[in-house]
Structure formats: structure tokens, C-alpha cells
From TrEMBL:
It comes from Iodobacter fluviatilis. CDD domains: ParAB_family. This is AAA domain-containing protein. Keywords: Plasmid. It comes from the Bacteria. The keyword tRNA-binding does not apply. InterPro entries: AAA_dom, DNA_Partitioning_ATPase, P-loop_NTPase. Residues 15-192 form the AAA domain.
Length: 284
């Protein structure tokens, strides 16, 4: 506990903003965002999830009520400069995790977005009181449009989930890298790559091993050691609106526990990440 207090004292004011980003659809961005949020909060972090995807997947997963019924969302934030960011943030179904939701109003939003600066989310995050959140995770949409640019402009880091077993998994990586370079040049020179994460991985499948090799070749030294396993338990937990840690001994819960530790260590939270709260069971 004492050790924890020392780390808290050192780290107060540090707020990492990680964009979970890959313009390919269905690679596990929303799943990674939600699971990392849960895992990090169980390691003592206060986490804000910002959903910037009009599909609203992480909002629907995390919000205790239907996000469509919420007054203020990321759409409000984009449309109305008079609204404060904290008015758009809500408790989630996980203690220690908060959600800034997105709702599907893309037609209106697309016109609005033309006129908006890519700094918009960064400017809003600058208004958050120091120490309110330790980690902010941004769930990006599956494209390289304005919302993704806003996320990358606001981020300190970006994480790229890559779906195992997809022969096209790495097609488009040049576009992804070119987008990051452009954002770094124009707006956010400090943006760092935290790593690529293999998702929906099954080491028994030859195709998954092929993707693994290719990802390691593409991102040398920058692939998370942990791979998120393919498991129906992930979908079940989301459908039942519970944490994967409600069954802490499953492969998925153990993987999320290890992944959150690796993630926090990469962000400089060594030691802090050692303890993990689960529903009565300890997972190392
Ligand atoms: N580890 C896993 N095991 C099994 N299924 C998974 C796993 N991770 C994700 N899925 C499933 O794969 C699908 C795509 O995942 P997800 O929605 O996280 O991807 P995404 O990149 O956010 O998609 P989009 O680009 O549409 O936003 C979902 O149906 C999800 O439930
Ligand atoms: Mg998604």
C-alpha cells in the first residue's frame, strides 16, 4: 500500500491519452479499448474511455443506460463549444472507468466536422482538471477521417490492434503510418507508438502464426508480448454486461490482466501495475 501511495504521488498530473487506432474495420479496437479500461482500472487507474466511433460500440458496452438517451455526448462536444467536457462524461458499468459516449448522428456530424479543427478534442482534454483521470483511451472509427485525426491529435500514444488470421491484416499499414506522420508533422510531434497488439489470436491456427510473424516483421520490437486470445467469453461478457473478470480464471481474464500490466509498464507505471483487483480472486 505504501509503495502504491509513493507511485500515486509521483504520477499525479500524468495523463496518458492512448488512441486505439486502425482504419481497418473489425480488428478489435472497441474490444481492446473496453478490456484495457477494465484491466487498468483493476490495477488502480482511473480511466476515461472516449468513444469517437459513430457505431457507438464502446459506448453501448460501457454505458449503464442507452447512450441515445444521454443528453450530452461526443457529438455535443463537437457541435457546441459552450458545453464543458465534464458534462459529457458518465459513470460506466465498471468502477473506475468513465465514458464519454458517441451516438449515431453521422449525417449531421459529417457536415459539422468539415468546419471543425482537428485540435478540437485536444483542446477539450486540456480543460480536464489535472489528476482526474490517469489514462484516457480513445476508441477510433474504422477510417482515416476527421474523427480519427482528432483522436491522434489529442493522443500522447497510439496502439494498433491487428486481427490474427486475417490475410489482409497488414494491408493499409502504409496509409496508417502516413496518417500518423502527417499528424505528427502538422499538430502533434510528441505522438508515440505504444505498440501493435495481436487480437483474436489462436496459437493453434497456422494462419494466426503467419499473421504473428508478419506483425513482428512489420513492427520490430513494438509488438505487445501479450496476444488477446480469440474466445467466446469476450462476447459473452459484453452481452451479459459484465467484466471478463467475473470469471477470473478464464484464459481471456488472465490475458487482459497480463495485457493491462504490460500496457501500464510501457506507459511508465512499473510497480503500480502489480496489484490486480478481481471479484475475490487474485490474478497475477
Ligand atoms: N478476443 C476476441 N475473441 C472473440 N471475438 C472477438 C474478440 N475480440 C473481438 N471480437 C469480436 O470481433 C468483432 C470485432 O471486434 P471489435 O468490434 O472490437 O472491432 P473494431 O475494430 O472495434 O470494429 P470496428 O472497426 O467496426 O469499430 C466483434 O464482434 C467482437 O465481439
Ligand atoms: Mg469499434
Amino acid at each position: 500500500m505504501q509503495q502504491l501511495a509513493v507511485f500515486i504521488a509521483i504520477l499525479v498530473g500524468k495523463m496518458d491519452v492512448v488512441a486505439v487506432f486502425n482504419q481497418k474495420g473489425g480488428v478489435g479496437k472497441s474490444t481492446t479499448t473496453v478490456q484495457l479500461a477494465d484491466g487498468c482500472s483493476r490495477r488502480g487507474m482511473t480511466v476515461l474511455v472516449i468513444d469517437l466511433d459513430p457505431q457507438s460500440n464502446s459506448s453501448t458496452t460501457l454505458s449503464p443506460t442507452n447512450p441515445k438517451k444521454l443528453n450530452y455526448t461526443a457529438v455535443t462536444l463537437i457541435q457546441r463549444p459552450d458545453i464543458r467536457i465534464d458534462e459529457c462524461i458518465y459513470d460506466s458499468i465498471f468502477p473506475g472507468v468513465f465514458i464519454l459516449p458517441m451516438v449515431m448522428k453521422m449525417r449531421e456530424l459529417e457536415i459539422e466536422l468539415w468546419r471543425k479543427d482537428t485540435d478540437l478534442i485536444a483542446m477539450q482534454l486540456a480543460k480536464i482538471k489535472e489528476g482526474t483521470y490517469d489514462i484516457i483511451l480513445i476508441d477510433c472509427p474504422p477510417n482515416l477521417g476527421k474523427l480519427t485525426l482528432m483522436a491522434l491529435t489529442a493522443a500522447t500514444h497510439y496502439l494498433v490492434p491487428v486481427k490474427a488470421g486475417d490475410q489482409y491484416a497488414l494491408d493499409g499499414i502504409e496509409d496508417l503510418e502516413a496518417t500518423v506522420l502527417e499528424v505528427k508533422r502538422a499538430k502533434n510531434p510528441k505522438l508515440k507508438f505504444i505498440g501493435a497488439l495481436l487480437t483474436m489470436f489462436d496459437g493453434r491456427k497456422g494462419v494466426d502464426k503467419v499473421t504473428e510473424t508478419r506483425v513482428i516483421e512489420t513492427f520490430p520490437g513494438m509488438v505487445f508480448d501479450e496476444r488477446l486470445p480469440e474466445s467466446v467469453k469476450v462476447k459473452e461478457a459484453i452481452m451479459r454486461r459484465v467484466s471478463v473478470f467475473s470469471e477470473p480464471n478464464t484464459a481471456v481474464a488472465k490475458s487482459v490482466a497480463r495485457l493491462s500490466k504490460e500496457f501500464l509498464t510501457k506507459l511508465g507505471y512499473e510497480g503500480f501495475a502489480d496489484e490486480l483487483e478481481t471479484a475475490g480472486n487474485d490474478v497475477e
